[in-house]
Amino acid sequence: MPGVILVSSEQPSLALELLGQARRLADGVGSEVRLCVSGRLDAADLAIYASYGADLVYATDQPVSDPCEWADILTGVIADSLPVLLLVGATKTGMEVAPRVAERCDASYAAWAVGIEIEAGFTTTTASCMLYAGTGLATYRFSRPVTILSVAPGVFEVFAQEGRVARVEPVAVSERPPRLSVLGDRAKSSSGARLQGARVVIDVGRGVKNQGDLELIRTLASLLDGQLSCSRPVSSDRDWFGEWLGLSGVKIKPDLCLTIGISGAVQHVVGIRDSRVIASVNNDENAAIFTQADIGVVADLNEFVPVLIERLKSRGAHPAWL
Amino acid sequence: MRIIALVKYSMDVAEIKVDPGTRALRMNGVPHRFGDLDKGAVEAAIRLKEAGDAVVEVVCFGPSGALGAMKDLLAMGADEATVIEDPYDGAADAAVVVRVIESALRKLTPFDLVICGFASDDGYSYQMGPRLAERLDLPLVSYASQVGVEDGILVADRDLEAGLQTVSTPLPAIVSVAEEAFVPRSVTLLQAMKAQKKPTNLWSLADLGLASEGLDAVFGYSPLGETGIVVNRRRHLLKDSKLAEMADGLIDYLVDEQVLVAEGGA
């Protein structure tokens, strides 16, 4: 089979998005889509991957988490399937695995792909990739037999078709002893927010200083039927949210993204700029976020949010779809 | 202990403007500096130096002009700084850059620890740590938010999506530091003055036994063009009014945009 397109992500929802894009590319040039996942598959899993576009699924005999181990497995799968293209989910693990595999397989590699083209006959692969932390897009034509691209969550749509079938191929995890000894794992608290598919997201930035402020914003979120999320610094400095919005985090496409105390660094804005409406509250009139917003309010959030809640309530305002 | 901190003299991406008509990126006049992630790598190295006994050397693949800015890193507490002149003007594929850094590290062997940011401030493609780990066959602790060394063993916390993972590995090793984990210290005038006397080096590719013809062949792609992303937002601003008026203004806007429905009342 010429020109296999290979897909891999340890994050299942992202693997499905990459499968969707791989399927569309493969149908255009007449090739096969193969997926590499960690851990044994049952028939139901296989049926799901088939309906989302996979023709063949490589499944490891044991769960894999170490990036080196992932790189070993993908290197073996590349040798077996000789793909023209490998799409890797741009999680922290994926972003470590992809350049490792590029080194091992002498592959072309570019990060943050948002558009991909393969010419019929597999002569050329080109891709447009986010550049300068999302300020621009660069288009590259790749020169190696194998091209690797990392793709962030939310970039490509899933594909689903009933009645497709896929084969499964077991892959043995390497016996190589890991270079790092894991001494302990501490889970981050999860906000439980359902960001994908949310119609309103309230995006909390560094301007929100304490738990009391956050409670107020929760009240606002419930009035707007909104999910709460935050910028990367808030996620790392305060143990309120496990995930964040931005280039290195989640990308959202809600009807409304209301930012509160967000300054507007491009690495963050990349995560919210596909929102239909962006509204922002910040006490600094010169904050970059106001150049990225449809409507901005220059005010102290601790003073403004209670008033906004009061006005929403007294005007009986609620989301248009409820 | 000998620690090599890798830094990039990166563009301040916040200063890159996009021409709204042509979507061209306006790169002229965009300032270069050592960004927070680069300084974070140096900060991590200096904290280890303070906790034990170490020499910290900073290495940068960039313009010769970066040598002046390296004084800031020396003032933070690094002992020696080297710039390898970049003939590609910052536009090389990471596959090329890693070969240059690999050659520099082989020249600087033996070392105990290499520390870099998990990504550069401008490229933001997360490649240096993993590629170096492959090429030097060394363990990599990626996304480190805390590092310590005891009896030749590195112990570090990795800041991952799901949680913090504590790992250990024998030296020599590579560490890539996480965002915001190592906030760079500010320097005093005295430290800045002392830094003037610290040794700096300017190396060429030839000093590393490399030739640009050989490196050209390592590029995995040809760039076909760049465009800026144009955001067409309304940028309507409410300010200098009573809070209730601004709240109503925001609600009215969201009603017009069919995000909200207001049942009435005042």
What does this structure look like?
The complex is a heterodimer of chains A (322) and B (266). Chain A has 322 residues and is of the alpha/beta class. Chain A has helices at 12-29, 43-51, 67-81, 92-105, 211-223, 232-237, 266-269, 301-314, and strands spanning 5-8, 33-37, 56-60, 85-89, 108-110, 113-118, 125-131, 136-142, 147-151, 167-171, 181-187, 200-204, 227-230, 256-260, 277-282, 295-298, 317-319. Chain A has a seven-stranded parallel beta sheet, sandwiched between helices. A five-stranded parallel beta sheet of chain A has the order 13-12-14-15-16. In chain A, α5 (211-223) packs parallel to α8. Chain A is elongated and about 65 Å long. The termini of chain A are far apart. In chain B, 29% of the residues lie in helices and 32% in strands. Chain B is α/β, with parallel strands linked by helices and 266 residues long. Chain B has two domains: 2-216, HUPs (Rossmann fold), CATH 3.40.50.620; 236-266, no CATH class. The radius of gyration of chain B is 23 Å and the shape is globular. β17 of chain A pairs antiparallel with β16 (260-262) of chain B.
The CATH superfamily of the largest domain in chain B is known as HUPs
**H/E element sequence of chain A:** EHEHEHEHEEEEEEEEHEHEHEEHE
Q: What is the tally of helical segments of chain B?
A: 7
Structural class of chain A: alpha/beta
Quickly name the level 1 CATH class of the largest domain in chain B.
Answer: Alpha Beta
CATH architecture of the largest domain in chain A: 3-Layer(aba) Sandwich
Question: Count of DSSP helices of chain A?
Answer: 8
Strand order of the largest sheet of chain B: 11-10-9-12-8-1-6-7-13
Averaging pLDDT over every residue of chain B, what do you get? Answer: 95
- The tally of domains of chain B stands at 2
The third-level CATH topology of the largest domain in chain A is: Rossmann fold
What would CATH call the homologous superfamily of the largest domain in chain A?
A: HUPs
